[in-house]
Amino acid sequence: MKIATWNVNSIRARAERVEEWLDRSDVDVLAIQETKAQEKNFPYEIFDFMGYEVAHFGLSQWNGVAIASRVGLEDVERTFAGQPSFAKPGDTPVQEARAIGATCAGVRIWSLYIPNGRGLEDPHMAYKLEWLKELRSNVDSWLSADAQAQFALVGDWNVAPYDHDVWDIDYFREHQMTHVSEPERDAFFAFMNKSGLSDVVRPFTEGEYTYWDYTKLRFPKNEGMRIDFQLYSPALTQRVKSAHIDREERKGKGASDHTPVVVEIAD
Q1: pLDDT digits (tens, 9 = 90+) for 247-261
Q2: Dihedral of the CA atoms 252, 64, 152, 67 (nearest 10)?
Q3: CA nearest to 102, candidates 136, 148, 153
Q4: Residue 123: which residues within 8 A CB-CB, separation 6 or more?
Q5: Which residues contact 79 (CB under 8 A, 6 or more apart)?
Q6: Positive or negative CA dihedral for 34, 97, 208, 242?
Q7: Sign of CA dihedral 150, 152, 153, 159
Q8: Which residues are CB-neighbours of 241 under 8 A, at least 6 positions away?
Q9: How far is CA 20 from CA 25, 34, 54, in A?
Q10: pLDDT tens sequence across 182-225
Q11: Which residue segment(s) compose the domain that 88 sits in?
Q12: Mean pLDDT in residue range 55-80
């Protein structure tokens, strides 16, 4: 079974490219982030035509996550237990569309769009860290209930765990940029070091990026970041056969600034 994750940066703007990529890649499950669509304007028809069931979670023109599967789509959950909401001082907290889970051929898959901290002192940073903390609490409870649980946390994590996961770490530090700060990295590594999950793509793709900004010719210069991941439970990790980052999909007119990340597991 092939499982892919892709931040499409607007499913409506990228509908044709997504359809063509699905036809070309032959994946069984695609977790999508940043759909930027409400339920009423999500393009379900392109997935129906290709034989995929879809579960989507979109509340506004921002965020939005989905899972498309041709191997079953059961027990859909929108948000995980205790998922934090966000609110500016004085505003009502809002539950954002950033997490959706479903069981596909016996594997529990979560499509995740982790908040962007925006700035080291921005309120969104505290929100991001709390979001990751609550997600890991869920992971620990799932594994405590069943050490053989087969699940995958996939998506745009908005964290570059290692210095070589960005094109120039000195640039990031000089400009006090997010994604590479110690608290963010600690929160990310806790999923592996404390909860026992595995970054199953890195062993096959060391040194590769998953995101390139549209500005300053970042893609032609290969000035990218590695921020899209598939983290697997111990039992599911044992089934991994291969993985790759589809850099080609970042090329050409109308591309997303992220590219698909694909893992193949044994049946």
Answers
A1: 999 999 999 999 999
A2: -80
A3: 153
A4: 86, 88, 89
A5: 57, 95, 98, 99, 100
A6: negative
A7: positive
A8: 264, 265, 266
A9: 9, 19, 17
A10: 999 999 999 999 999 999 999 999 999 999 999 999 999 999 99
A11: 2-265
A12: 96
Position 56 confidence tier, pLDDT thresholds 50, 70, 90: very high
**Sheet of 65-69: strands edge to edge?**
53-57, 65-69, 29-33, 2-7, 261-265, 240-245
Nearest of 84, 86, 97 to residue 39 by alpha carbon:
97
DSSP labels for the chain?
-EEEEEE-S-TTTTHHHHHHHHHHH--SEEEEE-----GGGS-HHHHHHTT-EEEEE--SSS--EEEEESS--EEEEES-TTPPPB--TTSPPB--S-EEEEEETTEEEEEEEPPP--STTSHHHHHHHHHHHHHHHHHHHHHHH-TT--EEEEEE-----SGGGBS-HHHHHHTT-SSSSHHHHHHHHHHHHTT--EE-SHHHHTT--SB--SSTTTTTTT--B--EEEEE-HHHHTTEEEEEE-GGGG-STT--SB--EEEEE--
> Which CATH number characterizes residue 99's domain?
3.60.10.10
d(CA 51, CA 36): 23
Q: Tell me how far apart the alpha carbons of residues 36 and 64 are, in angstroms, rounded to a whole number.
A: 5
Domain count within the chain:
1
**36-42-45-51 Cα dihedral, nearest 10 degrees:** 70
Spatial CA neighbour of 151 closest among 67, 56, 35: 67
**Closest among 104, 82, 105 to 95, alpha carbons compared:** 82
pTM: 0.97
Backbone angles phi, psi at 47, to 5 degrees: -80, -40
